[in-house]
Design goal:
single chain, mainly alpha, 4 helices, 0% strand
Amino acid sequence: MTSIYDGSSTSARLAGMAFEAVYGECAQAEYTGIALEYGTLPLADVMQALRADQWLENHPEAPAAQRAAIKRATRDAFYTDTPAWKRQVVAQAPEAALQALARLAG
């Protein structure tokens, strides 16, 4: 388990997340949230996509075709546009929520 707040997560610091609405709507409630990450590609492929995306950020003069290919590879590293992958994500989300509730209940 990692946290974006204590520096243990590899994720960038995030803002504007939907769960923040809980604090505005239910300020009196104690809130415990989770974020699930779903695998798409081997780690080395994901890292290569992220490197290419960073390179693109530093090279705005890159040709349109190269830019589009890099953006597509970055998207593919985090999202698989197939019905099977989407079904797995939908199935795992409630399973993870139930597991979290079981652990919180002690």
